Amino acid sequence: MNRITAEEAAKILLGQDDILVLTHRSPDGDTLGSAYAVCHALRRMGKRINVACADEIAEKYSYLAAGMQDMDFEPRFILAVDVADEKLLGNLRKIYGGSIDMCIDHHGSNTGYADKLLLKEVAACAEIIYELLLLMKAPIDVKIAECIYTGISTDTGCFRYSNTTAQSHYIAAKLMETGFNYFIINRLMFEIKSKEFLQLEQKAIAGMEYYLDGRVAVITLTKEMMDSVDPSSLEYIAPLPRQVEGVRCGFTLKQVEENHFRISVRTGHELDASKICAGFGGGGHKRAAGCSFTGTKDELIGRLIKAVEKEMQQPIG
Amino acid sequence: MNRITAEEAAKILLGQDDILVLTHRSPDGDTLGSAYAVCHALRRMGKRINVACADEIAEKYSYLAAGMQDMDFEPRFILAVDVADEKLLGNLRKIYGGSIDMCIDHHGSNTGYADKLLLKEVAACAEIIYELLLLMKAPIDVKIAECIYTGISTDTGCFRYSNTTAQSHYIAAKLMETGFNYFIINRLMFEIKSKEFLQLEQKAIAGMEYYLDGRVAVITLTKEMMDSVDPSSLEYIAPLPRQVEGVRCGFTLKQVEENHFRISVRTGHELDASKICAGFGGGGHKRAAGCSFTGTKDELIGRLIKAVEKEMQQPIG
């Protein structure tokens, strides 16, 4: 693995054609926004390029690919965006594992699986893509602005989270000048809830459990609860426990099978979520991370609380 | 009433001393952020200046005035910020009504009650204050950045709503460069909910009523429900009805007495909330407005639905 600069990445991409852009599994606004921004831009520059994802893309993201048909070619250059680890390619790993030419990412935990890595620990991968497109002198039109804004907006919780920087706002200002409908995007990403989701949310909040004198809150989603809504809407549950006054660490436990859980962790600025998850073989960012666990719910909660207690003893950093 | 430019307003303020800044009743982040930004800045420039508000200021806004004591002087210049109508001064109207020297506002509906009016229809009054402080060559330090950011962030729903512009983001970027803790402000303004509020929210959502094939949603808050929480947290209820899929107009009815209601209206880009409220003697912005009503809930809902139907027949503008 070679670390490269944005200038080098721009030069390499300009010299390539027949490019396939890979996103991570369970795709979110940043991996998709980044991939489609690159795809729209390079197509406008006359290149053949497609986007691939192991999982189905939620309907609410369909505007990112609007008007885009898959092109017919044999890929000669594989680019991964916002993918911290080859494992996160899902089923695509079987085909492209070990042969990723370039990765563009903002996760400090990137495993360096790609031949060349452009890594900057900024709020969203889409911020790196914006810089790259400027260096490539790509035209930033309304569609590309929508894609980049979606990445930044979703990864920063619409500019709320502590990862937001002056640069995030500065790029947003530049994108707004293209006149795209950011408010329809924000409504799609952050506001609209189905009646089914509202019911799930009520159930989840009613069943919230508190530990460590209210400093930890836990929501548990059973398989039945999760089956009642569009899977992509589940990401809106993860921030809820941390919204309760006094809660410093929020867990959302998704009970995918009787004794198998996927866990989302959200923390305030004084606790490192990725360290809490590392003890379970997971990872992510400082304020938002994830892991899985096989065992009973009681065992899981016992271990999570221990991990939080340990992390609470660390100096704030 | 004389309309003045930001340059003229800056010159006038620089020439004044012993200033009292008035905010609107039921003070929100924009009126308070604007007032305290001016107050901090002019005090740093050696002037005597205080802020006054008819109603108690919620605890969550206390950081805006941190370290600030009331100064002892007889006001010689009265400035109102973010106050569209003298009526909105609440009890302060009795003292200062008819003698407001200058008003700085962003409401198109401003009644022109002040001697001089600086009006720009931007997202937040705090955006005008930022421009004014630059013109006055005031130092934009961390505390002033907090005040201005609070105004912009609260009035744009943290950069989500359709009133957000490139300028809103550009100012935010500039403010972020001072290094203030925007994420703690955003957590205070948008995230933290007390357990009591969570319960109220659940009850409100469970009781939501739908009209016009789900295009209108109505939440009703009884006096008992409202008494269970900090009054300042009630503003978080108003956006909820509009979040439901398919809802184009959301009403929140606050039943302050048996037959007396205060109504908050939230609409999408195709409906004008201020026009709906105008029929009830109220007003506000295109997407967020308010009014009051004396009568039964059934009468009120009947009239609100008629007003929405009428507004739905208007061409989109």
Task: Provide structural commentary.
The structure is a homodimer of 317-residue chains. The first copy, chain A, has 317 residues and is an alpha/beta fold. Chain A folds into two domains: 2-190, inorganic pyrophosphatase (n-terminal core); 195-312, Roll (Diaminopimelate Epimerase, Chain A, domain 1). The first copy, chain A, is built from eleven helices and twelve strands. In chain A, strands 1-6-5-4-2-3 form a six-stranded parallel β-sheet, with helices on one face. A six-stranded mixed β-sheet of chain A has the order 7-8-9-10-12-11. In chain A, strand 7 (209-211) and strand 8 (216-221) form a beta hairpin. In chain A, helix 5 (142-155) packs antiparallel against helix 6. The A-B interface holds A 158-162, 164-167, 169-170, 172-174, 176-177, 182-184, 186-187, 190-195, 198, 201-202, 205-206, 239, 242-245, 268-269 and B 158-162, 164-167, 169-170, 172-174, 176-177, 182-184, 186-187, 190-195, 198, 201-202, 205-206, 239, 242-245, 268-269.
The CATH class name of the largest domain in chain A reads Alpha Beta
Strand order of the largest sheet of chain A: 1-6-5-4-2-3
Query: So, the CATH homologous superfamily of the largest domain in chain A?
Result: inorganic pyrophosphatase (n-terminal core)
Distance N terminus to C terminus of chain A?
A: 29 Å
The main sheet of chain A comes to: 6 strands, parallel
Helix content of chain A: 25-40%
What is the string of helix and strand elements of chain A?
Answer: EHEHEEHEEHHHHHEEHEEHEEH
Put simply, the count of helices of chain A is 11
- What CATH architecture label of the largest domain in chain A applies? Alpha-Beta Complex
Calculate the mean pLDDT score of chain A and round it: 94
Quaternary structure of the protein: homodimer
The Cα radius of gyration of chain A reads 20 Å
Shape of chain A, please? globular
**Which regions of chain A have little confidence, pLDDT < 50, spanning 5+ residues?**
none
SS content category of chain A: alpha/beta
Greatest chain-chain interface? A-B, 39 and 39 residues
Quote the CATH topology of the largest domain in chain A: inorganic pyrophosphatase (n-terminal core)
Strand content of chain A: 15-25%
